[in-house]
Amino acid sequence: SASAMFSYALLRAVRLGLLQGEAAGAALSAGRRALSALLETRLLAGEDGVTRLAGIVHVAGLGGFEGNYRDGSPEYYLTEPVVSDDAKGVGPLMMAFAENLLLV
Of the candidates 14, 5, 18, which has an alpha carbon nearest to the alpha carbon of residue 92? Predict the structure, then answer.
């Protein structure tokens, strides 16, 4: 989900003219590479024929949640459940894809 969010932010910044010159070119390249990587590695067709966005951490945060303390460590983050089609991943992916289309 974070990859989709930063792809969206970079592509939108370019489209809105918030970046100039080399910075705009670098942001465009990075945003498109991130989007491409997501589409190639995380957008997967299931056995049921439905395409899903895979590899989204279900819940991550800091502090208490459902009786557990979340300390923000890599160990904590890497043990959180990973799901498909969570809104915090799908939404930013759709927004990044739309920004990319607007830049064509």
Answer: 5
Q: How far, in Å, CA of 66 to CA of 75, rounded?
A: 18
Closest by CA position to 76, among listed 63, 85, 86, 87: 63
73-102 pLDDT per residue, tens? 898 889 889 999 999 999 999 999 999 999
Nearest partner of 28 among 89, 95, 100, 94, judged by Cα:
100
Q: Delimit the domains of the chain by residue range.
A: 2-53+84-103
Gap between the Cα atoms of 8 and 29, Å rounded: 12
pTM of the model: 0.86
In the chain, alpha helices (H): 2-15, 21-41, 74-78, 87-103
Distance CA 49, CA 30 (A): 31
